[in-house]
Amino acid sequence: MNRISPPWLDARFVRRRFDRAAATFDTAAILHRELLERLLSRLDVISSKPSVILDLGSGTGHGSKALKKRFPKAQVIAMDFAPAMLHASRKQQSWLRPFDRVCGDAQTLPLKAQSVDWVVSNAMLHCCEQPDAVFAEVQRILKPGGAFSFSTFGPDTLRELRTAWREVDTAPHVQPFIDMHDLGDALVRSGLADPVLDVEPFTLTYPTLNALLAELKSTGATYLPPTRPGLGHRGIHAALSGAYERFRAQNVLPVSIEAVFGLAWQPLNPRAPSSHSGETRIPIDALRGSRR
Q1: Alpha-carbon 150 to chain mean position
Q2: How far apart are CA 87 and CA 132, in angstroms?
Q3: What is the pLDDT of residues 46-85, one digit of tens each?
């Protein structure tokens, strides 16, 4: 069976861009908030009450805050690999309903095997170089019967911008996104069971190309391989703007979004988790009482 061919991503570049975006993320993350609301509404189908929830790719902490409000007795762990995002998430903390904050990589989670009831991840998976590794780690840390719920983006996302860039430069300037069916195959490969995935397409609109690009930058959603010309290169911006203008309708520029939502389960008799040498595993109990 063919494995996912992940998009080109450099972890240091991705971390740096999200660190830089931490200060502007909340004012621009309209799409992320919409996805979060839809993702949380899908948790209604899960009847169990979790004692430990991991908000994977927690960003500025809005999901962690919502999960703690919904499950006040649960331990909620906000985990992100961008330190500045975790720092910004302190604003979502409350004395009455605090959550833990841990800096960690989704592909090598610093948590013990079978220590988490639920893993919830909003708009994070597309930022990971190896989705298979993420799913394997989620399978490793979930307790038997635990649930993994996530949102991400499908191939039709930013279709107009991708098309406009192709008229300007042959290099990829818009990150490719993984098809829903490939994600389902990867979930099964990881050992997770009964995956259910669905797609919700919708369209955002912007008055100008600059407005769209400013929002992408403010949320850290930029993708430009090294050594390639960016919008500061002479003539590039004008050419891109002209190419995108062909999509204008009713005096606005459309932006296609293909939102993918997934839910999978840890089997009651999961396969043995793999071990990773050279990593630090943090017992869940060690985090209790330590609100960083």
Answers
A1: 8
A2: 28
A3: 888 999 999 999 999 999 999 999 999 999 999 999 999 9
The CA R_g of the chain, rounded to the nearest whole Å, is 19
Listing DSSP states for the chain in one string gives -PPP-PPP--HHHHHHHHHHHTTTHHHH-HHHHHHHHHHHHGGGG--S--SEEEEET-TTSHHHHHHHHHSTTSEEEEEES-HHHHHHGGGG--SSS--EEEE-BTTB--B-TT-EEEEEEES-GGG-S-HHHHHHHHHHHEEEEEEEEEEEE-TTTTHHHHHHHHTT-SS--S-----HHHHHHHHHHHT-EEEEEEEEEEEEEESSHHHHHHHHHHTT-----TTS--TTSTTHHHHHHHHHGGG-BTTBEEEEEEEEEEEEE--SSPPPPPP-TT-PPBPHHHHTT---
Q: How long, in residues, is the chain?
A: 292
Task: Identify the band that residue 4 occupies on the pLDDT scale cut at 50, 70 and 90.
Answer: very low
Q: What is the pTM of this model?
A: 0.87
Q: 11-155+177-201+258-287, what's its fold?
A: Rossmann fold (3.40.50)
| Domain locations along the chain | 11-155+177-201+258-287
Q: What is the pLDDT of residue 280?
A: 45
92: nearest Cα among 120, 111, 110, 67: 67
Residue bearing tokens 């908000």: 55
| Confidence band for 200, pLDDT divided at 50, 70 and 90 | very high
Question: And the tokens for 255?
Answer: 């932006």
Q: Which residue has the tokens 């993320």?
A: 25
